[in-house]
Amino acid sequence: MTSRRLALRGRGGWGPPGLRLSVACLWALLPGLVFTDSCIWYGQCGTAFADKRYNCEYNGSALPLPKDGYDLVQELCPGFFFENVSLCCDVEQLRTLKANLELPRQFLSRCPSCSYNLLNLFCELTCSPHQSEFLNVTKTEPYLDPSTKTNKTSITELEFYIGQTFADAMYNACKDVEAPSSNVKALGLLCGKDAKECNATNWIEYMFSKDNGQTPFNMIPIFSDTPVHGMTPMNNATKGCNESVDDATGPCSCQDCSIVCGPKPQPPPPPTPWLLLGLDAMYVIMWIAYTAFLLVFFGVVFGVWCYRKRHFVSEYTPIDSNIAYSVNSHQNAGEASCCEKLGEKFENALRVTFTSWGAFCVRNPRPVVLFSVVVIVMCASGLSFVKLTTNPIDLWSSPSSQARKEKEYFDAHFGPFFRTEQLIIQAPHAKPEIYSPYPSGDDVPFGPPLTKDILFQVLDLQNAIENITATYDNGTVMLKDICLAPLAPYNNNCTILSVLNYFQNSQSVLNHTIQDEFFVYADYHSHFLYCVRAPASLNDTTLLHDPCLGTFGGPVFPWLVMGGYDADNYNNATALVITFPVQNYYNDTGKLMKVLAWEKEFINFLKNYDNPNLTISFSAERSVEDEINRESNSDVGTVVISYAVMFLYISIALGHIKSAARFLVDSKISLGIAGILIVLSSVACSLGIFSFFGVPLTLIVIEVIPFLVLAVGVDNIFIMVQSYQRDERLQGETLDKQIGRILGDVAPSMLLSSFSETVAFLLGSLSSMPAVRTFSLFAAVAVLIDFLLQITCFVSLLGLDIKRQEKNKYDILCCIKGGEEISSVQHSESLLFLFFKKIYAPFLLKDWMRPIVISIFVGVLSFSIAVTNKVEIGLDQKLSMPDDSYVMDYFSSLSKYLHAGAPVYFVLEEGYNYTTLDGQNMVCGGVGCDNDSLALQIYEAAGISSYTRIGYAPSSWIDDYFDWIKPQSSCCRIYNTTGQFCNASVVDPSCERCRPLTPEGKKRPQGEEFMKFLPMFLSDNPNPKCGKGGHAAYSSAVTFRNNSEIGATYFMTYHTVLKTSADFIDAMKKARMIANNITESMRIKGENYRVFPYSVFYVFYEQYLAIVYDTIFNLSISLGSIFLVTMVLLGFEMWAAIVVSLTIAMILINMFGVMWLWGISLNAVSLVNLVVSCGISVEFCSHVTRAFTISTKPTRTERAEEALSHMGSSVFSGITLTKFGGIVVLAFSKSQIFQIFYFRMYLAMVLLGATHGLIFLPVLLSYIGPSVNKAKARAAQERNKGTEREKLLF
What we know:
Elements: H1 2-9, H2 17-29, E1 41-49, E2 52-57, E3 63-64, H3 70-76, E4 86-87, H4 91-100, H5 102-108, H6 112-127, E5 135-144, E6 151-162, H7 164-174, E7 178-179, E8 184-185, H8 187-190, H9 200-207, E9 218-223, H10 258-261, E10 275-276, E11 279-280, H11 281-311, H12 338-363, H13 365-380, E12 388-389, H14 392-396, H15 402-414, E13 419-426, E14 433-435, E15 444-446, H16 452-466, E16 470-472, E17 475-477, H17 479-482, H18 507-511, E18 514-515, E19 520-522, H19 524-531, H20 558-561, E20 562-563, E21 575-582, H21 589-608, E22 615-619, H22 623-634, H23 636-653, H24 663-666, H25 669-692, E23 697-698, H26 699-726, H27 735-764, H28 770-806, H29 831-844, H30 849-868, H31 886-897, E24 903-908, H32 917-921, H33 934-943, H34 945-948, H35 957-965, E25 973-975, E26 991-993, H36 1007-1019, H37 1031-1034, E27 1038-1041, E28 1045-1054, H38 1061-1084, E29 1091-1094, H39 1098-1101, H40 1107-1129, H41 1134-1157, H42 1164-1190, H43 1196-1226, H44 1232-1264, H45 1270-1279, H46 1284-1289
Parallel strand pairs: 6-9, 12-23
Antiparallel strand pairs: 1-2, 2-6, 3-4, 5-6, 7-8, 10-11, 13-21, 13-22, 14-15, 16-17, 18-19, 20-21, 24-28, 24-29, 25-26, 27-28
Helix pairs in contact: 1-2, 6-7, 7-9, 11-30, 12-27, 12-28, 12-45, 13-25, 13-28, 23-25, 23-43, 25-26, 25-28, 26-27, 26-28, 26-42, 26-43, 27-28, 27-40, 27-42, 28-42, 29-43, 30-41, 30-44, 33-38, 40-41, 40-42, 41-42, 41-44, 42-43, 42-44, 43-44
């Protein structure tokens, strides 16, 4: 007997049987060490509570176990199964032991050594034939057996002497074991407190305390490695989690045993900032570059000034034979180059063509206008096919993008991601309360929203939301009709992620209390504290024995339903979060409209809900789109006023009133209105053409293109009208020839700007971003049509208006004459033109002023370059909402209270073979799985969540399936008659284990066996006997092909809390990095399958991964096209094209500087505005540059002055003043997007364009402008020979 006892005590480390027997005999001969096998109990007697029973006191030798208990011993305590199996427990006690260990074994069996040590502990306690050595009975009570009428004694308390070494080893083997479906440590479910606070001592104390609700009486553990009070502590050999229990199983996996993993992965250090001299490197570099530029520039300027003083006196001094000649005095000397001749011929061809065309339009106004109207009507008729896209996915995500394809794959295989209706609730007037656990324990504070009174009020609100009824298509819609119910049709309860689901959404469960007249033993406090540690539990370990699992059949994770707590102290929550996932019928319009109808009622209900004790922030899936539409509608008035201001200015500013008496004759209100209508008609034509071909409109197109085309169109209108007003009709020249001549002069400049913008926008349509591509297409066609209408319809209307003015007929009231007819309208020069000619241009181009201008503008450029890389990327959701939107409160609460980010699914594409051992090892996270498997790589990523932004270990269906199918578990059972699945809760003798309790049966299923039981696992609902059923957690995680092969599957986890655009972008990048690593690991092992991450926000934020590239690409291609078109249309003036392109590039870089200063982030909206800025900058620069190239004045400074005098006033009045009035109105918009991305950026682009085009560019041209084209100068001299213009130009 002694040898048998020693063999039992030394399992796993005593050597061969012969040696063990010899040592046992030797010990038996030693004095004072007399061992006897004796028990302290045998059998059950007396009831402790519910179905929990005491054990009967028994002082005697172990008794042979009846043979009907052999299977139980083999399963639970195989170390006792030898000889006649004499134990201190009967069959009933073994059955009780199995029932009590059911749930712990399910969670801990993932790690065989942990499960082995735990069973060792309870087997020694329950059945060891030498209990008396380490168990000491301290309390008993008499018991009369009702069946035998014999008196027995029930043990009601005992002391359990446990070796500290054993306890520590058992804890160390179990502390890392995961519960995959709950994303928590398994000890958090078994220790009575959070896993982080659990240790060997308090874990065993909790398991042996009757306060846990499972133990029938107190067993007081006493930990010691040496004998105490004559008792020898139980100190059996243990297995470490890195050791194999037997030949059939391996050590625990890295996920369940940290020492197997090796060193914990460390995140790479954050990139060190680029510093020079302790300061930002870009700042330092640009300061040095700017300082060097100033030294070189002013050195050159000073040197040239000294040179001129010595040789030329002054650039403005008249050049004659007595004074040294200027470098430009002989500009026409010598032969013109081939390029100059080609440029002159091209220029002349344009002039002749436009001159003839202008004269034709003035001679035939009615046919031209009628034809224009017919074309406008035909093109605009396409608006009857208009489609407006408001779906953010279609706006921001390209159909060919990675995120879009992955979303479509996910939707096709697993169904669309559910719609979310969410409330964040605070209790501002409630006070925190203190809960004092019975009979002992530290006081636990409970946050204001977790007081019972507030919970009842929140439950009433939740029930009211469930009862909201909407009407659609003559029917009613309630939450139950559209909600996500994962266990339907077996369980039709809606998924409601709420703390109240810990109480089954029931007032009676919330009120459930176990108490007497003196103490409260258990109530909602104790139940809550248990459920936040074990959300998947079906039976809490308090005296309440209430389930924690939600009524919908799934766990409610505490980090999803509470907010504002510290660390993992959920009891300190200051906010409750209630989420209603709703079905997303993405491709079923009828069902989707039902959901939208209910969501509308949901929003209306909460807007009108009034409870002074609750502060509620809320949002529905449709909220953002609704608020954007409301914002757009509310800003219609602002936009209309903005355009009205611009229209009014244009109508008045076009006229040149000589006197009050001639106001109605000289005004050009009707011509201004006609010009505006032409601009709007070009926009309508563009929209109509693309609508006819099925290209959908976007809000950006509607809001931005009129602004852009108005800037381009109005500028051209002012140039034509003011050029006519400043011109004097030549002797014998008719009106049609005069306007034709004027059009021949200005139309090439209009063609230059309009065609440059058209080509730039067309090339911009190559962008991969749908919003930018659509805008570019519409803008290109609108600008082109606007130009064509201006050189046809507007020229004809201008001729008619001049004829009216010559006949002294009133503007608008054209039938009324104001006086005698005049032969021609006298030329006149506006005050603005005179200001530019007499004051501004000469002042700007003074010798001392020009260096100051250059130094200031280069300084601003240097600053902008230094901060360009600091412009933030992304779009804050709050900016898309009106200031008064209820969603603003929701966004604020979201960032303040939420502790978990969006769910993220790691999808393994279909075709993967899960039925082979190697295939399983590459994805699972349990025993025997590869250390770089899919589950373990995600688990390791969660360990460095601050870097990877993966918050939790993944829910792994395959690992829970392996736990579910183990023969040690009671989960997988089938009817021995039919082979059908038998749920663990069914009591039927014909139900038997799916797999035998043999070494082979304990191995993982493979091949056909794997596929046979998997559907049973995915259809099994969790119950108290088996918490591993996969129906609720994994029914949608696994798809099947042809009902016989596994298709695509996913492993779900959560991102950490993401608050800013940078957080969302980084989370997506890191998730893709992890997925690529997993894919690469599989590829190395010969499996060519792809893993990709999917989260609902990826499709919106993917654009930002390439936004910098898209910005560089779009702006570079726009600048490149502007350079080429400018070079050709200026008559192959390459240097002039370079100057124009350089100035526009400076404007764009300075736009980035303004964006940084004004807090404007880089996103699709601002990128569109940058493209617009590129187009408008052409208007500011091209006209002045062309005027410079065709000027024949002798010096660059004089040519720049002439160009600025003639074109500056038109550009200033046509764009700057026109836009400024309209832009200022946008500042009063309620929309933050309008305030930031339209008011701020439009104001910046107009001011920067005006300052660069009217200040910097003329000065730059005066320094490095192209030389006079000799061929053009001679041609101009020939054309103007003998006229007054010859004296002006030469």
